[in-house]
What does this fold into?
Amino acid sequence: MKMLRVLCTLLLGVLVLSCDSNRVYEQYENIPDFEWNQDNILRFEVEISDTVQANNIFINLRNSGDYAYSNLWVFVKVISPDNEIEEEKVEIELADETGDWYGSGFGDIFDLQVPFKQKVVFPKSGKYVFEITQGMYDLKLKGIANVGIRIEKEK
It folds into this structure.
């Protein structure tokens, strides 16, 4: 009976933590074999209906401990519902000057969430497309497991 109570408490905790009322969108793309080819454009299609609420946009990244660099350059293209395009080059710092990885780690994978745009109010409702490509000199960048986008309501 005690084991059942502990199990129910753990399950309830997981359910409470998984409820995220601020999340508008969150999705990851897997990088095959942890090797991000420059030709691999990651595409996230987000349906936006609220044109009043301010939002924060994050780039989510999971890298392995054998990633060769302390940073990652990415190109982010945002295409609005009326096909206006914004492009930006973003540097993501993955480790400090001593080589310690930022983010949380479990085993050899490190999970990092980086602010991309803050207090964004989407001017039109409809489908916004976010495209992310790696911008490093390596044609095949080893050690990147997943890349994602998170949009959440500004608190």
Remarks:
- The first helix runs from residue 2 to 18.
- Confidence is low (pLDDT under 50) at residues 1-17.
- The longest strand covers residues 109-120.
